[in-house]
Amino acid sequence: MSNVPPANDSPETPYSPPAPATPTIPPQAPASESDATGGLIPYKNPKGLAAYYLGICGLFPLLGFPFGVAALVLGIMGLKARKANPVIRGHIHAWIGILCGLFSIGLTLLIVAGIVIAAIAG
Asked: Which of 48, 73, 102, 121 is most exposed, with minimal Cβ within 10 Å?
């Protein structure tokens, strides 16, 4: 007979090795919702983002009409992209682009009309 004590299967015995720690993985957002910018910059809707920047640039004098038209068109395309895929963001950027585009187009047309009326009357 041997002098080896019988094996005990309980984990509380001082002779058993410690149980390996299981790594815990923190919960993450799905890949479709993760956003490094916190949702402030809609990089998944580039048309809406471009409409926003072009609409802002359209507010500068002499740049209003071409940038306003581009902002209007891209803003509508950005809204259509958002409607087709509701996961992407950027509809607010698209709306700001549309509104700034309309304002800059209207302001440019008023300035041109004022110049033409002044030239005719003068």
From this structure: 121
